[in-house]
Amino acid sequence: MRIIINREKCIGAGNCVMSAPAVFTQDDDEGLVIVLDPNPSDDLADAVAEAMELCPGKVISTE
Amino acid sequence: MNVASYPLPRSAPLLQPDALKNFRLEGPISRVRLWNGTEAWLITRYDDVRAALLDSRLSESPKDPGYPMFSESRAALVGAEDVFITHTQGDEHKRLRRVMSRELTVKRVEAQRENVRKIIAKLIDDMVEKGSPLDFVSNFALALPSLVITELLGVPYEDHEFFEENSRLRVALDVPADVPIRATKELSEYFSRILRDKEKDPGDSDDILTRLARDHVATGLISHEQAVILAYTMVQAGHETTGNMLTLGTLLLLRNPDQLELMLSDPSLVKTAVEEMLRHTSVLQLGMVRTATEDLEIDGRTIRKGEGVFVMLNSANHDPSIYPDPDQFDVTRTERNHVAFSYGIHQCAGQQLARMEMQEVFSVLFQRLPNLRLAVPFEDLKFKEQSVVYGVDALPVTW
Q1: Which residues contact B124 (CB under 8 A, 6 or more apart)?
Q2: Number of domains within chain A
Q3: Do the Cβ atoms of B102 and A17 come within 8 Å?
Q4: A63 in any annotated domain
């Protein structure tokens, strides 16, 4: 699994950090998403799926 | 056919309006009549609500012809108000949003958790010292988020009655048309003064308004007027909604003692209980306001360009296809996909702060006050049906 984000659309709601803190964080300047782990292991698949579903800006996708 | 008038009445204070059940069944869109005789659409099903809140053809700008209003007072306010962040889109929205999102990251919110714990302990100590009965809203539920947001923003807490009252009047529906405008003007002047002082001499205070003045206004990123609107938006959103959630959440637990017992028996349920309170109450009871800027189709029905739309968060959160037995308050529900904070680019910027405050409250409140209960009959409570944000005026409690 590879994480792809569209940072320009991010609104910094922080839901991805709540769902998958090992994969996502936010920068200090604008609160926008930063990917910590672009290739998360399979045991994080559920957390990443939740982050994708809850993201209000539809910023996260995987391939 | 009879067109329901809007806002819709509730048959019981802790349930959503009955009409929404039929609207979801008949859907996908339902017609309602507003205070001034005009009509608008309600979008009520979960999937349609999420899709609508992502749809750029549904505009959030009150400047678009046909923008529907909840009441005469709302119409007067929205017409008079300068650009408010939830009415913006595109680059302007991004610029304003990022000023707030940087202040409300998960990291910054977590850094406040210990402080929030201390404030909660102190407020409960004060309640115990005063003795029961007393009003839970003013002594606790509103006091906590007011203390937290004033500290974060760098606003003197002594002024809390002033901004609490004016924030309440800003979102009230059943007041003369000039009242929300006057309340907004009071808030604007107040925050304009504070910001002007900080723009002249930011000093070294570590608070949001100082950073707003120093990093955003002084550098020309946003105007003084925009900063003023952001300031009262953060104050209002920071105390009014959370205060109502803490009150209604407490009331839900008191009215569902089996669920309270369950939550107390397993501390890991506090988090899911908080999400369930948010879902079940959905305090933004009147929905998100939009106008169609072109014709659009939902499930074979057409909303025409220029027609008003209310996107009903409370209805989505009670859609039985997503939440079985939706009226049941169930602290063990595992779905986290509710839209109580809305969805799309205007989703609440302070939601992680609200969650954290609620989690901390419901981790200790009933441990500290195990016999907490209503001091008046439930039937005597006065609920805020005539407000953009649902809540209870006062909650007399004893313990």
Answers
A1: B140, B364, B365, B368, B369
A2: 1
A3: no
A4: no
